[in-house]
Design a protein that fits this description.
The protein is mostly helical and 75 residues long. The chain has two domains: 44 residues, no CATH class; 29 residues. Helices cover 69% and strands 0% of the residues. α1 crosses α3. The protein is globular. The N and C termini lie far apart (38 Å).
Length: 75
């Protein structure tokens, strides 16, 4: 469970509100994989252009994974 300070940093890094990271019960989203959490914190330290590039790549990979999953289920 990330601390409130880490959650704030993540929200700022991804230009989202803190409540977006919080579920319906008011608990901060549980990121269990420490390596993933570390990477997210590292992204925060990048310059704006580098951060946008990383997020663009992540968005593309997620979109492709979802598309593969969708087509695999239908096919």
């Amino acid at each position: 469970m990330p601390s409130v300070e880490v959650a704030k940093k993540l929200a700022n890094a991804f230009s989202i509100t803190l409540d977006y990271l919080v579920d319906d019960t008011g608990k901060v989203t549980d990121i269990k994989d420490k390596a993933t959490l570390h990477r997210l914190i590292e992204i925060e330290g990048l310059g704006q252009e580098e951060k946008q590039t990383v997020l663009h790549v992540i968005d593309s990979l997620i979109r492709n994974a979802k598309a593969r999953k969708t087509y695999a289920v239908q096919g």
